[in-house]
Design brief:
The protein is α+β, with helices and mostly antiparallel strands. The chain is built from 7 helices and 4 strands.
């Protein structure tokens, strides 16, 4: 069961962040970064508060949130699994790795597992082509994978 992120405490923290950055030029990105740390994501309710606090149109904020990959409207899991689908990884079988992870966790690409533990993302080249196919779990990198490696990797988390 997902925890309630919309607590009074979280909105008070957000207000402090907005006040701290309000007069700064280019305040939006730092406020969005801090807000995502507070709430774990940037749902519309949070974007509206930022819009009101910084006097920036909601459409502009939504555009920034949806443009940059580091921002998320949906809550992310404790662990984000990135499966590289760049050319080298794809040729070496990363689609099979992705399919295996989806099956093991019962989660779709771009979604979070029912227990809130894992978010699965398909990524582009991460620059580890010599290790293809590659996945990342948060900051950990796993390379030269075959489908049978996946259960043991997931079990670590």
């Amino acid at each position: 069961m997902a925890k309630n992120i919309f607590t009074e405490e979280n909105f008070l923290k957000l207000e402090e962040v907005i006040q701290k950055h309000r007069e700064q030029k280019g305040a939006l990105i730092p406020v969005l970064n801090d807000a995502q740390k507070i709430f774990g994501c940037l749902p519309m309710e949070v974007q509206k508060k930022i819009s009101e606090g910084l006097h920036i149109p909601l459409a502009e904020i939504y555009g920034v949130v949806t443009f940059y990959a580091q921002f998320s409207i949906e809550p992310k899991g404790e662990y984000t699994i990135g499966v590289c689908l760049g050319t080298a990884c794809y040729v070496k079988g990363s689609q099979k790795i992705l399919d295996k992870i989806q099956k093991e966790l019962n989660v779709e690409v771009g979604k979070t597992s029912a227990d809130g533990k894992f978010t699965l993302e398909a990524t582009r080249c991460i620059g580890a082509c010599g290790l293809a196919p590659v996945i990342t779990v948060n900051e950990d990198v796993y390379g030269r994978l075959v489908e049978s490696d996946i259960p043991a990797i997931l079990k670590k988390y």
